[in-house]
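DM from R.C. (forwarded with permission)

"hey, sorry to bug you on a friday — could you get me a structure for this? deadline for the figure draft is monday and I only need the backbone to look sensible"
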Amino acid sequence: MRRPCTRLWAGLILFTTLIITSCSTSSEPSAPSPTPLPPEQALPTATEAAPPTATPPPTIPSVVHSIRPGEPGLRNSYLDDVDAQAGSKGISFGDIFAANRYERPFQAGDMVLRPEIDITSAEITFDEQWYYFTIDLQAPPAEGQRSPYYALEIDLDRDGRGDWLFAVEGGLTDGWTTDGVRAWQDANGDVGGPTPLAADGEAADGDGYELLFFDQGYGEDPDAAWARSLPGGGSGMQFAVKRDVLEADAGFLWSAWASAGALDPSEFDLNDRISAAEAGSPILGDADYPLQGLAQLDNTCRMYFGFTPTGNEPGVCALPYTPTPEPSPTPAATATLERGVLYGLVWTDKDLDGVKDSGEPPLTVFVSVTSGSCPSQGGGGILYQTRYIEYGINYWIERAPGTYCIQVGYPGQSTTGGSTRTVDVPAGGQVQVNFGYAELN
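My reply, with the result:
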C-alpha cells in the first residue's frame, strides 16, 4: 500500500526540479563559454613578447677643419680700458649705464674685485684670412674658479646696433680651438631697441642676437671663429674670426666684453632689460651704489677699424684731440684771441710716488676747470668727462690766457698730488698738469 506514495514523492521532486530549472533559465542568459583563438591568433605571453625595435640616434658628423688661425702680427689698433680698483670697497670710473658702457668687474653687494674679468686693454690685427682680437685682463682665473665668458660685439654699419656677437667660455688653453666658441647675428636689426646703446627700458622688446650662425664648429663654415688663451701664460685671451665671414671691407666698430656668467645674446643691449636702480652702480657716491643686478661685467667703448671716424658714431671711443684752427686775428685782437691749452694725464699711482710707471694704467675721470685760483676744497664748474686714452692724454682743454683751477675725480677722493691745482695759462702756450690717483681704501 506504500508504493503509490513513493511514486508521488518522486513526481513532486521531479516537478520541483523542473520549476527551479525553469526559473533559472528564464533569467538573463549567462555568458557563453569563450571560444579559444586559433593558434595563429593567440596572444604571446610576457616571456614570448618580442622586444621593441630601438631607433638609433642620428649620427652627428665630426667637425672637419680645413684651416686654422696663425699668429697675430703687429697690432693695428689698440685701446686702453679703464682700470677698476680694489680696496675695502671696490671702485671704478668710466661706467655709464645709460650708454651701455660698463666698468663693473665686482661682485654684487660686497664689491669684491674679479680681476679675471677686468679688461685692461684690447687690440686688433689682421692678415689675409683672419682678424685677430686680443683682450688683456688684470689676471687669469684663479685655480678652481668658474671660467669667465669673453665676447666681441661687432657693428658693421656703425649705427650703434651690433650685427655680430662672438662669445666663448674661458678656461681656454693656449692652442686655437672652436670648442665653446659661438657666434650670433642680429638678422632683424633690433639690437638696442628704439635707441641703440641708450637705456630704453620697457620700450625695448626685441630679441637681440636671435640667429645662431656658428656653434663650436657647426654651421655654414666650420672654421668661422676660434679662441685661445694668451700664449706663454699671459693674462688674457684671443679671438680669430675669418675675414670672409664678416665681409667688412668698409670697416667696423668693435668692443670687447668680459663676464663672470654667460652673456645671453637675446638680452642685448643689457641696459634695455634692467633699470639703473636694479643694476646698481660701481661708482662710490652714486645713489645706486653698490652693484646689484648687473655685476661682474666689463666692456670697452667701441674702437674703430678700417675707416676714418667722425667722432659721431654711436659708442665710438673718443678721438684724439685735433685743435681747430682759429681764424687769423687782426694785430690789435691777437692778445685777446690767442688761447692756451691745459692737458695732462690721470693714472692709478700704485706705488704712490707721483710718477706714472709701467703697469700703472690711465684712468677715466671727471675734469673740472674754473677761472681763478682753487679754493681749499677745489672748484666746481664745468665738467669734462674724458674717455679715450690710447695716446695717454686724459684731457686737453683750450682756454684764454689766465689763472685757472683744475679739479679731477669725484668729491671725497684724493690723488697722490692733490685733486686740485692752480695753474696759469699763457697766451698760445701749453701747460701739462698730471694727477696720480691713489687706490681708495
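R.C.: lifesaver. The chain has four helices and 23 strands.
me: no worries. The longest helix spans residues 3-26.
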